[in-house]
Amino acid sequence: MSDSLGPGDERDVLAAEFVLGLLEGEDLADAGMRLSRDADFSAAVDAWHRRLGPLFDGVRDIEPPADLWQRIERRLDAQSRGAGSGEERPNSIVPISGRERAWRRTALAMTALAAGLALVLGLRIAEPERPAPPPVRAQPEPALIASLASDDNSAALAVAVDAGRGTILVTPVRLAPAPGRDRQLWLIPAGATTPVSLGLIRSATPQRIRIPAALAAAFGPEATIALSVEPAGGSPTGLPTGPVIASGTLDRI
């Protein structure tokens, strides 16, 4: 297995990172300049925008609170006055509104999405080289990913289907402790209503779950991945018994 990248692979990875907002500092500036000078790189960026468009369609637009800027100015002014007087001011506790919580949930969902895309790119880079490659470079198969984030921001994860290995890769972005409980992952095939257990998500580190042969065909576009909170050891019934805290649809990229 080779980890080396050809020029086309490097360009595609950089374009994906640019679209996902994963670049910073000099890397971001260099990519921005390359966008205006390198037609192939510009085309790769456009292609990633088209691939990711359906995934972003599922993210609801949220307007900031009308008084947000005034609140920021008041806090900055108060901190400035406190610093000028030499007095220590107690930390202010600012209540988090429902809209701000939704912002955080959206940010978590986007982070999970970025993690999923990075995971998919890693899968493609790590694919073994074929002997005697054809003169025309074959395009990789479209990948399937889903991003999940709970309303209370306690859990966010990305799920990528690795059809070549018959597994799914689960990358937690956030997984808050749940003493005495387990989180269980479920698949709901497109057009179906009955969830099928995929296993427990107990660790905040990425994990690979093997896809049962009988379920392989069910992992397609529009299938739903869901996460529920269950008793320790998982659901005793084979179906969700606790609250479903997050769900996401598998989309092709």
Write the layout of secondary structure elements.
Layout: H1 7-20, H2 25-37, H3 39-57, H4 68-85, H5 98-125, E1 144-149, E2 155-162, E3 167-175, E4 181-188, E5 196-201, E6 207-210, E7 224-231, E8 244-249, E9 251-252
Antiparallel strand pairs: 1-2, 1-9, 2-3, 3-6, 4-5, 4-7, 7-8
Helix pairs in contact: 1-3, 1-5, 2-3
Question: Describe it for me?
Answer:
The protein is an alpha+beta fold. Among the domains are: about 10-55, no CATH class; about 145-250, Immunoglobulin-like (Sandwich). About 35% of the residues lie in helices and about 25% in strands. The strands form two sheets. A five-stranded antiparallel sheet has the order 6-3-2-1-9, covered by helices on one side. A four-stranded antiparallel sheet has the order 5-4-7-8, with no helix packed on it. Strand 2 (about 155-160) and strand 3 (about 165-175) form a beta hairpin. Helix 1 packs across helix 3.
